[in-house]
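Meet my pick.
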Amino acid sequence: RTVDDLALFDGVIAGDAAPLEPVDLAGLRIGVPRGHFYENLDPATASVAEDVLDRLAKAGVDLVEVDIEKVGELDEAAGFPIALYETVVCLNAYLKEAGLPLDYEKVVAEVASPDVHGILSSLLTAEGAIPEAVYREAIEVHRPALQATCAKYFKDNDVAAAIFPTTPLPAAPIGDDDTTLLNGEEVPTFFTFIRNTDPASVAGLPGLSLPAGLTGDGLPVGMELDGPAGTDRRLLAIGAAVAKVLPETPPPAV
């Protein structure tokens, strides 16, 4: 529920429990990549996002409005070919090594979420399976290109992190498994909700989502901070400083 909790958790996983060094927001350079990450936002999400940027600016943060070149295009070329190919190969290998009487097909048959079941079951057909050549191109060409463009973004613009809405819209209604409405248009639920968080995940960058406010309907909106590769503890420290200027939101019910 707090950045300090995440820092403790990260320390256990990564074996680095060094205290977070305090970060002064005054003069801190944070990138605002409007292209891709701020496109076609739900109005309520956009309103919360702009409020957060205003709060950061008033706290002395130097907001650098510059885009990450071809980030959406590179993420699309790398992300799903890697994830879907490895899902089949690695899950079957794990099940076999564990000596379990299961394989990928039997696991997929038990998936209850309609959209996830649809994606995973499509890999069982020749038409839906990811060819190894496509996977190799994604892992050897497109992912390194995505990593390089992200590294260039942070270095060339001298920004410690980038900030943007965690998702383009608030939580969708229960039942919107395959599609949901975004600004009056039917859009794929899964792909829309992961649009902003996927690039850093694919590139292997640290990312931190902070509660940033509520919509008029009381739905939570998050703002994500992504940092350069290997700056996990620094990003947590930045997140701790940023969290202090964000509006307080009630904790989730237990």
